[in-house]
Amino acid sequence: MTGRVRRQRGESALGAIAVLALALYALFIVTPVLMSAWKSLTDENPLLAHARFVGVSNYTDMLHDDALKSSLTFTLVTALAVTAVANAAGIGFALLLNKTSLSYRVMRTVAFLPQVLSGVIVGFVWRYILAQDGVLNHLLLSTGLIGRPVTWLGSPHLAMFSVGLVAAWVLTGFTTVVHLAALQSVPVELYQAATVDGAGRWARFRRITLPMVAPGTTISVTISLITTLKLYDIIAALTSGGPANSTQSTALYIINLAFTDDRFGYASAVAMLLLVVSAAIALTVTGLLRRREVDL
Amino acid sequence: MTALTPTSSTAAARSRTTGPADPADPAGPSRSPAAAPARRRAWASRGHLTAAGLLTLAFVSPLYLTIINAFKSQDQIVRNPSAPPAPPTLHNITDALGRSDKIIQIGLTNSAVTVLASVLLVVPLGSAFSFWLTRRSAVFRRVVLAAFAAGLMIPPAVVLLPTIRILTILHLDHTYPGLILSNVGGGYLSFAVFVYSGFLRAVPGEIVEAAALDGAGMLRIWWRIIMPLMRPATATVAIFLSLWIWNDFMNPQFILGPLRGQTITTGLYLSLGQYSTNYAQLFGVMFLAAIIPVAGYLALQKQFIAGLTTGATK
Questions:
Q1: What is the pLDDT of residues B78-109, one digit of tens each?
Q2: Smallest CA–CA separation between A242 and chain B, in Å?
Q3: Which end of chain A has the lower number of beta carbons within 10 A, N or C?
Q4: Sign of torsion, CA B91 B95 B98 B104?
Q5: Residues above pLDDT 70, as percent of chain B
Q6: Do A113 and B63 touch (CB under 8 A)?
Q7: Cβ–Cβ contacts within 10 Å for residue A34, how many?
Q8: Are the C-beta atoms of residues A262 and A46 closer than 8 Å to each other?
Q9: Which band of pLDDT confidence, cut at 50, 70 and 90, is reported for residue A8?
């Protein structure tokens, strides 16, 4: 009897904590998304006393917004390119470091370090490296690979490339560790059997390694995509979105619309667009990769 | 590595960098045990080590620059950016620590308080909630977990503006409690619930039932039995949340605002503007800003990698 009473008491205390967790989630995830959805239909602006309902006009305005188009293109292209490069590099790096001796363990530890730094530090260090009079140009000039300094961050196309390079650099530490973990679960007997059957290195890599690490790849690709789709702090420190808005990610564009232009309503509409696009991409790619896992 | 398996030479060359690594290399046992291949193998593994070492060095060279330039004068940095400090100077570090606005000391304190408070709230909340979830119906559990997973995918910029509005209504805008509360309720709780739920799947229900038969309440079972069992999950959650909250830039920048003190990350961003050409000062500040997460990672890297890989391969 006392047991049951105490159990119920414990259950309700645990239930109270659960309700608190659900309430916080509702307050800081669900409500903000709903508020964004609602605000996206208004002309809310901190300078106006009352926001008016404007229907879908924020959404139709997007069709003529070149800054939005360029930010979205930049975000999508970077997300796909960075994910591809970081994961290819991660698989390669993982294969190279997949040994147990001390020096390889040290290398593995070191390879993850970029992930530990804040995006602001990463952005600044690379700004210093890629500056016109920076280390990279210094190095390339002294080896005679280039004749005059390259404006890595000064011209739109190169700046986009540079931002992608830096984002891929950070993510590679993560993709390497995930693939290393996946590699360690591949049974050696599979390779032995394949070798006996006359499979070469490339065949073994394609037919055994890649399929066996596929679940790791799925996670690694999904997280790479999600991370790059919300890229903000690295860009803020590296290029601030310039030159000529060429590296303005959609996240950065939303922040600028809200905090520089005071266009809360329109910023909310762009936020909804980013939300839908991110969800669509993440779900599509994860779905495709899952199916590939099964097929292989 | 010499390819002794019957492949074309181009395939062998191509796969030299991508082929499976040596100890796991199945070609090993099939090779003839003669002396020549053994010697060749030794050379190959030395070559592999050299290649891996060079690549790793190139990969982390930006970090090398951050460290050495923190100990060089402005003049040394500009004249020879990649040379080691000769002689090393502590001026940048002492100057950064001696600033009259105490940006480093205040930033480190504020970041530490924010991280500690957020983690101390998210860990029990996430773990108790996940345990409570295991006792609900499968459908309910699946729906809630899907909703929390969605929380992980939402770009922070999407919820930032309404979050600030909600904090204003609660009179918590531009305050640390506001920042901490939005940390606790936002994507970080989602992450904790995700990790804990994954771990709880491996905990047999009999343990809980046996304890309940002995008369223990659910709260007590959670605290005395589940929490100790989930120590690895707690380590994962605490380590990753600490790192993310410490490095977070967007939330402190906009939730605290420019006038309400800084975390180390926003303080660093401010210094970026102030010192845009004084590299010596900036590298000093960056070194101090990076030293705690890096030291923490190096000290805990085993748990770090373990947490990452269990999370990722599950």
A1: 888 888 888 899 999 999 999 888 889 999 99
A2: 16
A3: N
A4: negative
A5: 86
A6: yes
A7: 12
A8: yes
A9: low
Tell me whether B210 touches chain A (CB under 8 Å).
no
CA distance A70 to B4: 52
ipTM higher than the 0.95 cut: no
Buried b (16+ CB within 10 A) or exposed e, A9-26: ebbebbeebbebbbebbe
Answer whether 0.80 is exceeded by the pTM: yes
Provide Rg for chain A, Cα atoms. Answer: 24
The answer to whether the Cβ–Cβ distance between A103 and B272 falls below 8 Å is: no
Mean pLDDT of B58-64: 92
Q: What is the number of other CB atoms lying within 10 angstroms of the CB of residue A3?
A: 13
The angle at the Cα of B126, spanning A172 to A286, to the nearest 5 degrees, equals 40
Q: How far is CA A132 from the centre of its chain?
A: 27
Give the whole-number percent of chain A exceeding pLDDT 70: 96
Please tell me the predicted confidence (pLDDT) of residue B213. Answer: 85
Spatial separation of the C-alpha atoms in residues A113 and B298, rounded to whole Å: 9
- Confidence bin at B33 (pLDDT 50/70/90): low
Pairwise CA distance, residues A84 & A221, whole Å: 8
8 A C-beta contact, residue B198 and residue B311: yes
* Cα B224 to Cα B306: distance, rounded to the nearest angstrom: 24
Q: How far apart are CA A156 and CA B236, in angstroms?
A: 40
CB atoms A92 and B17 under 8 Å: yes
A13, B52: Cβ pair inside 8 Å? no
Q: What average pLDDT score do residues B261-286 get?
A: 89
The tens digit of pLDDT for each residue in B125-136 reads: 999 999 999 989
Q: Exposed, middle or buried, B29 (CB in 10 Å: 0-12/13-18/19+)?
A: exposed
For residue B181, which residues of chain A lie inside 8 Å, CB to CB?
24, 28
Instruction: From chain B, pick out residues whose CB is under 8 angstroms from the CB of A167.
Output: none
